[in-house]
Design brief:
The protein contains 10 helices and 7 strands. By secondary structure, the protein is an alpha+beta fold.
Length: 391
């Protein structure tokens, strides 16, 4: 395996570090203090657009499928995402852009869908968002169990159901909603539909109160007789073959799990660095027990990073990485929780005030074991593979 960091990636990491110290961490601490997501009209998002952020990887109508992924390798992307999460994971999720469904559209969308739904992200005139509506009150880790229904009629499709914990749903220009033609058929009947903000029947938006990652919104909403035209079926009528929608969704998760692992590694690093800083300032490094705990934690963080990079390396080699993606997420999330727990023990009563970075990281990091497949589900995937069962 080759993990050499090229000059372009090194510059991107340095830029992420500068941005994180100047903008991301202050914004995250402020959102945590207020207990609310950063507002859509906050000047922070306007500055994101001025810096050239919030854009799509699609290159426009003349783009080909081969060029849609952008020039940066997966490993390079993971390293940058680790650095960004070091400063504040909640803020980087809150930033504008086409978000999680972008890859689905790049891989499976028609030319017309790319132009209509990704086109506004080429040179955005304002902060814009999009999101992926998969999770439901009764279907979280088991994505095949969704109940939101899609029924075909003469004018297109009719959607009915409810979604929850969808990042940025209330502010998104459009939501890529995962729905089923027949719940009894599981994943084989799933399709994805573009639902534009303001469509009649789309509503009931409720921003959930979370214990951490407060900078971005996690939103519940309902779909009541939401009518979308036939052209809003992802991939169009020609891509309605059995299982296509579910497979495309899973590809997003297999790509996203190493990214979540990289986020967790960044947060673990932040907790470790802050623990060392606190220990140094309070003359705790003279204690063998403190040094031993810090050394053991540093080893675990490095191990988690290497597993994460292995999953990214396989993706760069266009080799299957489902197992490595699951291992990286399960391990990195656990290590991050251990790092923040160690930090809380170290700072003691200081952590009970609710204004220390480690205490915030302790609350933030719990989501890393939940989002894009819980740690339990990752371990199920790994175990079933080891004994030769279908994943």
């Amino acid at each position: 395996m080759e993990f050499t960091v090229d000059p372009e990636t090194r510059r991107a990491i340095e830029q992420a570090r500068e941005l994180g110290e100047k903008e991301l961490r202050p914004a995250g601490l402020e959102a945590d203090r207020r207990g609310a997501p950063i507002a859509p009209d906050d000047p922070f998002f306007a500055r994101c657009i001025e810096r050239g952020e919030g854009r799509t990887r699609w290159r426009g109508p003349d783009d080909s499928a081969k060029s849609s992924g952008g020039p940066r390798s997966v490993i390079s992307t993971l390293l940058v995402m680790e650095e960004l999460a070091y400063w504040d994971r909640g803020v980087i999720i809150a930033t504008p852009g086409p978000g999680l469904p972008e890859n689905n559209v790049l891989v499976m969308g028609t030319d017309e869908q790319k132009e209509r739904f990704l086109g506004p992200f080429l040179e955005p005139d304002r902060p814009r968002w999009a999101c992926f509506g998969m999770t439901e009150p009764g279907a979280g880790s088991d994505a095949a169990a969704i109940k939101t229904r899609a029924e075909k009629d003469a004018d297109g499709w009719l959607l009915n159901g409810a979604k929850c914990f969808i990042g940025g749903a209330s502010r998104s220009d459009w939501i890529l909603v995962q729905a089923t033609l027949d719940p009894s058929k599981g994943r084989k009947a799933q399709r994805a539909f573009f639902v534009e903000q303001g469509t009649p029947g789309l509503g009931g938006f409720q921003i959930e109160k979370k214990m951490g990652l407060k900078a971005y919104e996690s939103t519940s909403f309902t779909l009541e007789n939401v009518r979308v035209p036939a052209s809003h079926l992802l991939g169009g009528e020609q891509r309605r073959e059995s299982n296509a929608g579910f497979k495309t969704a899973l590809k997003s998760f297999n790509a996203g799990r190493p990214a979540i692992a990289a986020n967790a590694v960044g947060m673990a690093r932040a907790a470790l660095d802050e623990s060392i800083r606190f220990a140094r300032e309070h003359d705790l490094l003279e204690q063998d027990r403190v040094r031993d705990r810090i050394e053991a934690m540093a080893r675990r963080v490095r191990k988690a990073r290497l597993v994460c990079l292995k999953a990214g390396w396989l993706a760069d080699q266009q080799r299957p990485n489902i197992i490595e993606a699951s291992i990286s997420k399960a391990l990195a999330a656990q290590v991050a929780q251990e790092a923040t727990s160690m930090g809380l023990e170290l700072i003691g009563s200081v952590g009970s005030r609710g204004d220390h970075l480690i205490e915030k990281l302790y609350r933030d990091v719990k989501a890393m074991d939940i989002v894009e497949g819980t740690g339990q589900v990752q371990r199920m995937i790994i175990a079933r593979s080891l004994v030769g069962l279908p994943r």
